[in-house]
Amino acid sequence: MEDIVLEASLRQETGKSKIKPLRKSGFIPAIVYGEGKKTVSIKVERRSVLRLIHEHHIENVIINLKIAGDEKKAKDSAVIIKEIQRDPVRDDILHIDFHQISLTKEIKVKVPIIAKGEPVGVKVDGGSLEHVIWELEIECLPTQIPPKIEVEVSQLKIGDSILVKDLTLPPGIKVLQEPDQVVVSVAAPVKEEVALTPEEGAAPEEPEVIKEKKEVPEEGAAKEEKPEKKEEKEAKKEEKKS
C-alpha cells in the first residue's frame, strides 16, 4: 500500500469571522473524528490537498495525516476523507471531514464501478448501455479497499445484463448490496414512429357529405294547387249569387 502523507496543524480559528481569513491565507478548515475519539479541529494547506486530489483517486484512499501542534492532541493518524464541502458557485473546497480508522478493523465504503469495453449489442445492433449502479457498497479492511471495480461489458448483447453477484472482486471483500441487483444492461434501440403521408399525386380524401335529396315533380305533372282559405271560398259564392 502506497504511503500517502498529508501535513496538517491544529486549528484555533472557529466561527465565520475567523474562517474566512483562514481560507484567504491558503488553508482549508477541517476536522478529524473517529469512533470513540474526540473530534479535533485542524487546517491543511489548499495546495497540498489539490495535489493529493490530482495524483490519487481521493475517495477511499488511506492517508497518513501528520498533525503538528500540541503533543497531547497532535499525532499521526490513518484517515480517509469522508466528505468534502465545496462552494456551489466557484466549486472551491470549503471544508474537509477526515475519518480516523484502524488498519486492523473492517470498514464500510462505496467503491466506483467502471464499465470496460463497448458491448456487441451497442456496436453492432445499435442498442444502448444502461449503467444502473455506479457504486458498490462493500466491507473490508482499509488496506484491501480497491480504487475501483471494473466490469467487462464487451460481450453483452441486447437484453443481456450483469448482476452484482456476477462481479469479480478481490479476496477479503464482502458485498453489502443485493446479489440480484442489475449493475449494467444493454437495451434495444428505440424505434421512432413515422407518420403516414398520402401517396404522391393522390388528392387528400375528403369526408363524405350526405345531402338530403329533394323530390322533383315528374315532367308534365300538374303542380299541386294550394288549398284556398275558407273566407275566399265564401266570398266567391256570394259573387255568383249576385
CATH architecture classification of the largest domain: Beta Barrel
User: Which topology of the largest domain does CATH recognise?
Assistant: Ribosomal Protein L25, Chain P
Order of helices and strands: EHEEHEEEEHEEEEEEH
Largest sheet: 6 strands, mixed, barrel
- Rg measurement, Å: 43 Å
Strand segment count:
13
Query: Superfamily at the CATH H level of the largest domain?
Result: Ribosomal Protein L25, Chain P
CATH domain class name of the largest domain: Mainly Beta
Our estimate of the beta-strand percent is: 25-35%
Gross geometry: extended
Mean pLDDT, all residues? 83
Task: Indicate the topology.
Blueprint: E1 4-10, H1 16-24, E2 27-34, E3 37-45, H2 46-55, E4 63-68, E5 76-86, E6 93-100, E7 107-116, H3 120-123, E8 128-131, E9 135-140, E10 149-152, E11 161-163, E12 174-175, E13 182-187, H4 230-241
Parallel strand pairs: 1-4, 2-6, 7-10
Antiparallel strand pairs: 1-3, 2-3, 4-5, 5-6, 7-9, 8-13, 9-12, 11-13
